[in-house]
Design brief:
There is one protein chain. The chain is of the alpha/beta class. It has a single domain (26-133), classed as Response regulator (Rossmann fold), CATH 3.40.50.2300. The chain contains 5 helices and 5 strands. Helix 2 packs parallel to helix 3 (70-80) and helix 3 runs parallel beside helix 4. The radius of gyration is 13 Å and the shape is globular.
């Protein structure tokens, strides 16, 4: 049974569909793939699923979204789930937001849109490898 979560957060459904398809090809047999169209929905999914015993492992988030921006979302997600691997995937993030995410959310990597699927999967695998070696308490 899949008990770990890879969450994609973006306000564009086309981006979420592409990410979900790429992640399913790479990780579907190992992790549950979830998508959210806003930061608020992403936090709700994380809270709900973690309350049901699932382990959030990876968050891939856009920066420029209505409501809560990606850096604020990743900082809040880090506060709630510090072990989660956080990747920002955006075509419009400013340097201050990226730096803030690195400092306050332990951002694993920033990738620019349009992204290369192989680079994204390699980044996730790198983060998961680091995660397994650190053996955090969940």
């Amino acid at each position: 049974m899949k008990r770990s979560i890879l969450l994609c957060v973006d306000d564009e459904m086309m981006v979420l569909t592409a990410l979900r398809d790429q992640l399913r090809r790479a990780f579907d047999d190992q992790h549950m793939i979830e998508v959210a169209e806003s930061a608020e929905e992403g936090l709700e999914i994380l809270d709900d699923l973690s309350g049901d015993g699932y382990i959030p492992l990876v968050i891939i988030s856009d920066w420029l979204m209505p409501g809560m921006k990606g850096d604020d979302f990743l900082i809040e997600a880090h506060r709630r789930f510090p072990h989660v691997i956080k990747i920002m995937l955006s075509g419009q993030a400013d340097e201050a937001a990226i730096l803030r995410s690195r400092e306050q959310a332990n951002l694993h990597e920033f990738l620019a849109k349009p992204w290369d699927a192989q680079t994204l999967i390699a980044s996730i695998r790198s983060g998961l490898n680091d995660f397994q070696h650190e053996k955090p308490t969940l």
